[in-house]
Specification:
Shape: rod-shaped
Structural class: mainly alpha
Number of domains: 1
Helix content: over 70%
Number of helices: 3
Radius of gyration: 51 Å
Keywords: Coiled coil
Largest sheet: none
Length: about 140
């Protein structure tokens, strides 16, 4: 890479060498070291990519298991919630029916009392009318 750069831009490379006061042979050594380091990095990246792929596959199966377990738990919770809700609705219905029965019973009792008082009032009016008539006749 350094050799290509020296050939394509000789003025810039010689300026670079002058700027850092590096001899040409040290640039070649540095370039060689950098190229070896880049090759080692590329090899490590390949190893890391393979390990990452294996890990991703492993994680995918673990995640899949976790997701399936979570879905099962959520379905179980939904079923329990639905069952509880149905039981609660049934309980509320029974309570409402019991309340309606009590209200109907109270309504019947009140109607009976009202009828009895209406009879008493009618009888009182009849007695009052009879007493008034009797007092007028006298």
């Amino acid at each position: 890479a350094w050799d290509e750069l020296k050939q394509s831009r000789p003025a810039e490379t010689s300026e670079f060498l002058k700027q850092f006061k590096l001899p040409a042979f040290s640039i070649a050594a540095i370039t060689h070291s950098v190229e070896r380091a880049l090759a080692a990095i590329a090899a490590k990246q390949g190893i890391l990519a393979e390990a990452s792929a294996e890990l991703a596959t492993s994680l995918d199966t673990d995640r899949e298991k976790q997701f399936r377990k979570r879905i099962f738990e959520l379905e179980k919770m939904a079923t329990l919630h639905s069952r509880r809700e149905k039981e609660q609705v049934q309980q509320e219905r029974q309570q409402r029916e019991a309340s309606e029965a009590r209200l109907m019973e109270m309504n019947c009792m009140l109607e009976d009392k009202l009828t009895a008082r209406a009879r008493e009032a009618q009888e009182f009016q009849e007695r009052a009318a009879a007493a008034l008539k009797a007092s007028e006749d006298m």
